Amino acid sequence: MSDVSFVRTEMLPEKEPPGSSVGVIGWMRANLFDGVINSILTILSLIFCYFVLEGLLSWTFQSVWNASSLTECREVMVATWGKTHGHACWAVINDRWLQLLYGFYPPYPAEAGVNFGEGTGSWPAYFRPNLSFVLLLIAVAPVLFDKLPRKLLIVTAVYPFLMPWLMWGGSLWGPLMVAAGFGIGLLAYRLLTPVIGGLGGIIVAIALPVIWWLFLVGSVAAGLESVVSISIPEVESRKFGGFMLSILIGVVAIGCSLPIGIVLALGRQSDLMIVKTLCVGFIEFIRGVPLITLLFVASVLLNIFLPPGTEFDIILRVLIMVTLFASAYMAEVVRGGLAALPKGQYEGADSLGLNYWQSQRLIIMPQALKISIPGIVSTFIGVFKDTTLVSIIGLLDPLGLSNAIRADAAWNGIYWELFAFIAFLFFVFCFGMSRYSMYLERKLHKGH
Amino acid sequence: MKKSVVFGALTVAGLAAGAAAAGTLDDVKARGKLNCGVTTGLVGFAAPDANGEWMGFDVGVCRAVAAAVLGDPKAVEFVPTTGKTRFTALASGEIDMLARNTTWTFSRDVDLKFTFVGVNYYDGQGFMVPKELGVSSAKELDGATVCIQTGTTTELNLADFFRSNNISYEPVPIETNAEAQQQYLAGACDVYTTDASGLAATRATFEDPSAHVLLPEIISKEPLGPLVRHGDDAWGDVVRWSLNALITAEELGVTSANIGEMAAGTNNPEINRLLGTEGNLGEMLGLSADWGKNAVMAGGNYGELFEGNIGESTPIGLARGLNAQWTDGGLIYSPPFR
Fold first, then answer.
1. Is ipTM over 0.85?
2. Which one of B202, B220, B238 terminates a domain?
3. Are A270 and A211 in the same domain?
4. Residues B128, B192: contact at Cβ < 8 Å?
């Protein structure tokens, strides 16, 4: 009697899945040709993609890069492809890309008696805006990525004073003395708080620097400049333009609006009646008017109200207005984050015996800001794109410059190439910001 | 109480503004630079080149004034202004003069309190249609769709013209000239109407300009000229006579090529007065004796500016037409230098 078993004692090895359900074919069956309707839709989409890409790619890459005018571009196109339709004339970008990036900013700012310009020959063109941009990247890096050495924060602290000096030029003493104002405030707070108490200390620590900035900085800086001269050639605001201007306005508005927005959001939730009323009034007023209105106020109305002869820099006016605008929106985004926190977090902070600022800094803000990251970043992106509105008040941002370039008889009638270039640059910046915010959300996600 | 303080402060500011505006000529001399308002970009009239240098017909007027006042055609700060900011920029003192293809109208002169010092280009509203439409007169445009920039005088002129000729049209509102070109080429409208100089410049950019025609009707008067603030007649005179110097130079045959030998003295006393070798016209204006010579040397006389920027040798290709000297049957006419 043989021991015949009908039950298999050993496991069969796993079989390969059928060839039609793995690899490329399987993926396509599962995702593209899953049923009749989906197959038809897939084929229609492919045909659509083909036609779009066929036109777009040939327009982008079968293009003219070297020509001195649109007419010449068209001649080259006719000579090469037999028709002008469907081919880009990138020669305009080739001709004007520096202008689109830097506006009329002089490559070698120079001025009589200052040996810092073209004559020395050792400085690369546009090194001042370029250096400002590189320093900007270094300055924001430690804020964005916490793995970097903390010592880089020194660059971050110095940058707000160094950047205006590099961009506008003039005496180094001006920014130095403005920075000294913060030192004066801190010193006053340290020295006076033990003597006249906390509230008095804060008031004096705010009042002293303001007096210093308003009345003394100019003369002290001028005095020091006459003793020890540290200056580079000045560049007027009218020379600023192109992407440099967009980035400048965007960075300043983004950098200043977050802290101001947080303060406004806290003020709006405050129990102090005056503080609360001021914050609510400010936020609602700024959010109630369009940015263009604020820009017109900056460009037109202030000119009429200020006493004649007052030189209130147009870019500075625009910077202030855009910053105020962004701050109001930021305040509401942060307030959303604050409102989303459960009440227990506030009560827990109180029960630990933390005072108001400690609980905000250690418990409330880290959570509230984390919740608000998508809103904050989308406000940033919005502000950056809104900088193109300054073309309406005659500042030559990329869009304003595209109009000015078209007004040159050589390039009159060229549209898509300029707009495509501008859109590409804006996309790079906005996409970068958006990716960073997703990275930040993943990193901060603690999974509760 | 508080209100009165605010109003008081505003009044003081206003008075101070008036006081400071009384001496634009001195301000410009002290500053060493002329702040001249131009357009943000209009083909042939004002545009920055690849090096950021402003070029164009209106720009030439700015440079001539700067040369007359300061002796240096490069001593100009060009302030780009849009249609919305130009008048406040001038009224608030941000710019000393505006040379931005601005039409001289009653309300701008009287109500907005500006002084137009002259006309440097006589423009008028025209029509452009595709040749294949077979239209030879604007009066045949019954029922046509018309691309028209909103919020401009052209819109009102168009309505007037069609109403007075008892024909109908359908407006296609557009915002900018750039948009208009695209709409017109795409066939969204049968007719494009704007200033004739703009039409010519637009047509010059088309791939096939000969497929489009400008209709003979000019339905409005658009005298374009530089303007200054009301109430500063000394400065207004400087700008007016700088422009007149360019016009007179052309009339008398003074060009940037022969001005060197002319300035040595000629038999024509008016040329001598213009170039400062005779009389004291410069002194009367508060300028140097060779102000007229400097103004003409900045970019040439009126005819040279016209030919170099918008004339028939340029892609824009405008004929002199109304803008010929009065001796050639045009309207360009300067009072005598005496």
1. no
2. B220
3. no
4. yes
